[in-house]
Design a protein that fits this description.
- By secondary structure, the protein is α/β, with parallel strands linked by helices.
- The protein has helices at 49-54, 99-111, 126-139, 143-151, 161-177, 190-200, 202-205, 211-235, and strands at residues 30-33, 36-39, 59-64, 81-86, 116-119.
- Strands 1-2-5-3-4 form a five-stranded mixed beta sheet, covered by helices on one side.
- Strand 1 (30-33) and strand 2 (36-39) form a beta hairpin.
- The radius of gyration is 18 Å and the shape is globular.
């Protein structure tokens, strides 16, 4: 049965007056989408409040490990709304589980007329992976296209290899999760439908899914999708129904 692809909006075009990248810009934040900024912690420090206010920042996603909490902090909790995420910049870290809550937070900010900054420590790996994931889900683009789009605006991004693999896998997850009832199956959740199709049929749909390269990802994805399914069920009990 042929899948009906969901409709997605087009990615905004780059500004004609965008600056050429220079090394010092890695210490600043850049606007990736209208209202969505990506940068390092140095762009969210107390001394940068005037710049944050100049750009209209209202929401901040602060990404850190527990061991980084002493020097990566939400500095303006009385001024901005924060989402603080405990994520290690480690290839074995399960970053997929943070995608839904990140998207919900960013969407809520933009829909209310706000602007959001996503930062980790350097603004290179963890925060970049979350912004790439947001673009993939919002605009329905593959990892490589989303990566290029973000890199054109913040050249220094470099998600670790584990995050890259998870983002590549996630494109198919997002495609099928956003497709209205792709199969006539009596599954309890679209996530279950997706998992079944992923393991059974996706390899035949893309040359990139060679078994020797992707087999470990299928096993990991079963665990990740259970976590995402549980999170979505708790947020929206009507999503999964028999």
């Amino acid at each position: 049965m042929e899948l009906a692809k969901p409709a997605f909006p087009a990615l905004p075009q780059a500004k004609e007056d965008s600056e050429d990248w220079t090394y010092p810009m890695r210490r600043e934040m850049q606007e990736i989408l209208p209202g969505l900024f990506l940068g390092p912690y140095s762009s969210a420090m107390k001394s940068k409040l005037p710049i944050l206010q100049k750009h209209g920042i209202t929401h901040v996603i602060c990404i850190r490990q527990n061991i980084e909490a002493n020097f990566i902090k939400p500095n303006f909790q009385q001024l901005f709304r924060y989402l603080v995420l405990d994520i290690a910049d480690n290839p074995v870290e399960n970053i997929i589980r943070f995608f839904p809550m990140t998207k919900e937070f960013i969407d809520g900010s933009l829909q209310s007329g706000g602007k959001v900054l996503v930062h980790g420590n350097a603004g290179i790996s963890r925060s970049a992976a979350l912004v790439i994931a947001y673009i993939m889900e919002t605009f329905g683009v593959k990892y490589r296209d989303a990566f290029t789009y973000v890199q054109e605006r913040r050249f220094c991004i470099n998600p670790n290899a584990g995050f890259v693999h998870q983002l590549q896998v996630t494109f198919f997850f997002l495609l099928f999760l956003n497709t209205e009832k792709p199969f006539n199956e009596s599954s309890s959740c679209q996530t279950d439908i997706y998992t079944n199709m992923l393991q059974g049929n996706v390899r035949s749909r893309s040359k990139a899914w060679e078994e020797d390269e992707w087999a470990p990802q299928f096993l990991r994805l079963k665990l990740w999708t259970k976590q995402i399914q549980e999170w979505r069920r708790n947020k929206n009990p009507g999503l999964c129904s028999d």
